[in-house]
Specification:
The chain is built from four helices and no strands. It is an all-alpha fold. The N and C termini lie far apart (about 35 Å).
Amino acid sequence: MTDRIPPGIDSAATSLTGFVCDALAQACSRDRRDVSPDTRMLELDVDSLTLVSVLAQVEAVYGIELTPEDTLAMMEAAAVSDLADRLAVVIMRAHQGREASHGSAC
């Protein structure tokens, strides 16, 4: 994915990363202390069904809807931090789109 998180949203990215760590730990039946941003997805044995369930939690909590293309891109994440970074980009795009649509109504 070529999009990167712009500077200035570190706290939001940190919060999202923590949420993703928590969700993956729960979905993979792992102790939360064993899941960090540096944890490789392969170490967690995350299958596609597990990842989709985690992504559904992110959609619900962050108020976004992932496209099939977004979901496929998430499946390519090598580490938890990579997954969180990819999700942050989608979340930012969704919120920017909402702001733009609200701004054009004035």
